[in-house]
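User: Fold this; tokens only.

Assistant: Input:
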Amino acid sequence: MKKDSRLSGVLHVLLHMAEQDGPLTSEALARVMGTNPVVIRRVLSGLRQKGYVRSEKGHGGGWTLACDLSRITLRDIYIALGSPGLLAMGNRTESPGCLVEVVVNAALSQAFQDAEALLLHRFGDVTLASLSADFHRRLVAVGKVRVK
């Protein structure tokens, strides 16, 4: 089953952007992510609409962060991506004719809803600033010099 890794990828891109003093082109970000620049532009344009990033065209242009990392949570980015499904599991059929399956669906549906609510709550507690701070702690721990 294919996993939706857009949230992870966008967070990766945003943290790379946070480490730069100037704009990064779609091409440069695509190289970091091992993808096509069109994919980067498509994803970041949705974040631009929410005010999280900005872009400038022309020589010296590219993508930059538009707001402080402490104001952006994982939940914000998740919503900006269109709130993709969080769980890969689901009910076998949504309109069962069997009462056993009705009971199974009810139990699973409630568990799925509870799990999603808990995950979204946790996403709201984690800022990009906390991810950046963790990155910098790990840089120090492995003896690397800070990029910025």
